[in-house]
Amino acid sequence: MLLKTLRYQSDTGWLEPLPTALNSPNTLVLAFGASEYADDPGPFAELARALPEAVLLGCSTSGEIAGTQVHDASISVAVARFEHTTLRHALTAVRDAQDSWAAGARLAQQLLAPGLRAVFVLSDGLHVNGTPLVAGLAQNLPQGVVICGGLAGDGSRFLRTWVLVGAAPTQQHICAVGFYGERLCLGHGHDGGWSDFGPERRITRSEGNVLYELDGKPALDLYRAYLGDRAAGLPGTALLFPLSLKREGGSGETLVRTILGIDEQQRSLTFAGDVPQGSIARLMRTRNDHLIDSAGVAVARAAQGIDTTADALVVSVSCVGRRLVLGERTEEEVETVVEGAPCGAGHVGFYSYGEIAPALVGGSSDLHNQTMTVTVFSESPLDSQPA
Questions:
Q1: Residues 60 and 184 in one domain
Q2: DSSP state, 249?
Q3: Is residue 386 one of the residues assigned to a domain?
Q4: Are residues 87 and 140 in the same domain?
Q5: Is there a single domain that holds both residue 333 and residue 253?
């Protein structure tokens, strides 16, 4: 695999020439850009012209990750030409959150082909329920296919997210790339660093990703009571206090859910993924050091089994809520990932409205929130087996 990372800034343009020599059908171009580039898509058109045979995938962000730094109003790009791995692009429109499972199934049908090893998916972050999206993909793909990716962001504004359709930033779409071939080496890991506090409450009324009642009381009213003065900043301030969910009597991994919107009339909360009725919910909080340490755990898991002598692309998808908590220390989280990544690896990523990665228990992929997820792409030499 040959790899190049680069950046675009609105005031200076591309900071180095586009790597046209890497153009091929097996070249992946990942472009993570600030949401305002929906109004200025020229840089994506330049990428498409410079690398016309490549698979171009991208989305809006709540901060662009490039190496050890986090930027705003920029585009972070990785160009990876695989030597022994083939790629296939998939794209679908999505009407609303209720269309999410079917949208995942449509993507899966486009990607089904012999040798499929992994799927990296980028989704609109405001019109999609990430839980059924991943389920629709997983249930229509062969067992063992790894699904990673994330939901597009828009800072803490929650107004407009997009993914690239061709070279055009477009709302209400989901894009994905499939990776095919036995030489692909893929590592993945995630960790949160959050802890529960306060009483357990049962979800007594919910539909999909909309939470109406906790312990028979309006969810929005209870959440406002917890937030106190910070309630005026909803939904943005809710990123500081996500919910943990666990099915009653379940032994599976606890899921974290972040609020994307509120409905004053229904007194309900809308989350990035499902909030199943009957589940036990608790508020969560964290400290900066815990978040930074969790990034180290995530990259350590992802780097296991990866050949440290081979070129590697590291993609981090972290939650906008983590960035709001970390503030000026945000780059420490990103630096921790780079420190634990294979030596010389290229590193890009973005801050999201939801992170997609396999669960630690059972291996099936799911939507996560307030989590650092790390995916490592590499290729194995002929004389070794893929990780």
A1: yes
A2: T
A3: no
A4: yes
A5: no
This prediction has a pTM of: 0.91
Residue 385 resides in a domain? no
Reference 166, options 253, 45, 332; nearest CA is 45
* Domain assignment of residue 124, yes or no: yes
Nearest CA to 320 out of 262, 244, 260 is that of: 260
Helices and strands of the chain, counted as H and E runs: 7, 27
Q: Which SS3 state, helix, strand or coil, does residue 145 take?
A: coil
Residue 45 placed within a domain: yes
pLDDT per residue over 157-202, tens digit each?
A: 889 999 999 999 999 999 999 999 999 999 999 999 999 988 999 9
Structure tokens at 199: 């009483």
Give, in order, the Cα–Cα distances in Å from 58 to each of 189, 286, 363.
Answer: 21, 30, 26
> Locate tokens 């972040």: which residue?
258
- For 313, the 3-state DSSP assignment is strand
- Which residue, 285, 318, 338, sits at the end of a domain? 285
Residue 45, SS3 per DSSP: helix
Instruction: Supply the pLDDT for residue 261.
Output: 87
Average pLDDT score over residue span 98-106 = 97
Reported confidence tier of residue 387, pLDDT bands at 50, 70, 90: very low
Whether residues 242 and 131 share a domain: the answer is: no
Type of residue at 53: E
Range(s) of the domain holding residue 210: 195-285
Question: What integer pLDDT is reported at residue 113 of this predicted model?
Answer: 97
What is the C-alpha to C-alpha distance for residues 319 and 258, in angstroms, rounded to an integer? 9
| Stretch 251-256: mean pLDDT | 72
Report the domain count for the chain: 2
Structure tokens of 194?
Answer: 């959050």
Query: CB within 8 A of 322, min separation 6: which ones?
Result: 291, 330, 333, 351, 370, 371, 372
**Overall residue count recorded for the chain in this entry:** 387
Better-scored residue on pLDDT, 86 or 198: 86
The CA distance from 204 to 276, in Å, is: 9
- pLDDT at residue 28 is higher than 90: yes
- 332: which 2 tokens? 């420490």
